[in-house]
Amino acid sequence: MPVLRSATAGSGEAPQQHSQPSRKGKKAWRKNVDVTEVEEGLRELNNEIIRGGVIREKASEDLFTIDTAGDAKIPQKFPKHVKKGLKADEIINKRSAVPAVSMRKRPGDKSTDGLVAAKRQKTDWVSHKDLARLKKVADGHHENTIAVRDAAFDLWDAPAEPATVATKKGPTTTTTMDFLPEKVEPKVPKTMKQQPLSLLANGKQIPAVPKPTGGYSYNPSFPEYESRLAEESAKAIEAEKKRLEAEAAEAAKLEAAARSAAEAEAAEQRANMSEWEEDSEWEGFQSGVEDERPSAKQPKRKTQAQRNRIKRRKEEEQLARHKAEMKARRAQEQRIKQIAAEVAEKEKQKALMLAQQAAEQDADDDGEIKEEKLRRRQLGKYKLPEKDLELVLPDELQESLRLLKPEGNLLKDRYRSMLLRGKVEIRRHIPFKKQAKRKVTEKWTHKDFVL
Fold first, then answer.
1. Residue 166 pLDDT
2. Which of 91, 221, 402, 422 could be joined to 196 by an S-S link, Cβ 3.0–4.6 Å?
3. What tens digit of pLDDT does each residue of 196-240 get?
4. What is the pLDDT of residues 231-276, one digit of tens each?
5. Where is the composition biased (Basic and acidic residues) (predicted)?
6. What kind and span of H or E run contains 72?
7. In b/e form, how buried is each residue of 284-313, taking b as 16+ CB within 10 angstroms?
8. 325 vs 233: CA distance, rounded Å
């Protein structure tokens, strides 16, 4: 059964009766009075007190503020350079598309109707103004007289004028614009002032074009040609021996690898066979196998006496080593004069050797082509290209210049000389430039075609 409740039960409101048939009597008037307006006023008063105080009791300074800065979003919506004028000014500023009639005097119309001939202007006369000016010029009276003076300075040595600067000053801002940018000189790398490093072992710079000896001639003398032929033959034989040794070492290496692979395969097969035999043995045939124990001795803990013995032995060894070093130092101190004499003798021999090498180098400075000994560590990751063999075989020697066949390449020689002197870095020749990869696709615009 539902619970019956009154309409005003639990609402917290006073009982109301807006339609009163009669207000006779004091009791009826008090019971049926409408206090809704009073309650609303009290509720608003409490809300104002909660928010910070009664508005009517506050001063005007607490309730209102004077905005002196303005809205910050207005300049964004309406920039300073966009100023909207009045409609009246816009109407007044409108002008007709037809230009106004000029008030200056215009020349007469040269068109005619064919009956009266048109007037022709005279072109073979001079006006009075030009005539007076010409008379003054003839008499030596010029309007603009230019005095020619010799220059007191060299125009080409004058310092460069600074860039033109236009400055616009306003009440609060200053704007500066450079019309001509300053010329920036290229920065010279510091390596341009350094000497190039030669690839020779002695580090000496060789001439750009070495002078060939007599053995390089197309018609050489027999002793020089024979010595050079023997030298080149020895080099070729040595290179061939090295090549054969490298091939033999490579073949031995391959044979050893094949042998080791065969041995490993045979060992694997034996291991597989032994496993198969062990698996095929009758269970329990070998007796006493499980009773076997490892015979390795287990490590035992050292006693204090053993530790002391090891410590005394290490101290004795260290003391003996120290005594030996001190003895050697005393012996060295005793023979210090002898050591000084030996060092002086070594320095003297070294200086003599250097002087001899310098003399040999000075003797070799005639620019002749000789065998090159390169340094171990070269510049870059590529090696110096080998020099072409410039040798004519005995059966190729010609007695006549008409039958002479020129050999060699000056471009290759000059390039290798620059590499050897360290002028240019050694690079690898790339015959073809790497092109960018391109993907070919078919456009789908034909699908948009509709009949």
1. 47
2. 422
3. 888 888 878 888 888 888 888 888 888 888 998 898 899 899 999
4. 889 989 999 999 999 999 999 999 999 999 999 888 888 877 765 5
5. 313-332
6. none
7. eeeeeeeeeeeeeeeeeeeeeeeeeeeeee
8. 56
Torsion of CA 117, 121, 124, 129, to 10 degrees: 160
- The answer to whether the CB of 174 falls within 8 A of the CB of 167 is yes
Looking at 29, 46, 62, which one is the last position of a domain? Answer: 62
* 255 and 203 inside one domain: no
Residue at which a domain ends, from 324, 339, 366: 366
DSSP notation for 226-291: HHHHHHHHHHHHHHHHHHHHHHHHHHHHHHHHHHHHHHHHHHHHHHHHHHHHHHHSPTT-S-SSTT
Distance between CA atoms of 384 and 416, rounded to whole angstroms? 8
Q: To which residue do tokens 């590529």 refer?
A: 382
332 and 352 belong to one structural domain: yes
pTM over 0.70: no
Residue 292 domain flag: no
148: part of which helix (H) or strand (E)?
Answer: none
What is the average per-residue pLDDT within 293-308? 77
- Same structural domain, 360 and 405: no
- Overall number of domains in the chain: 4
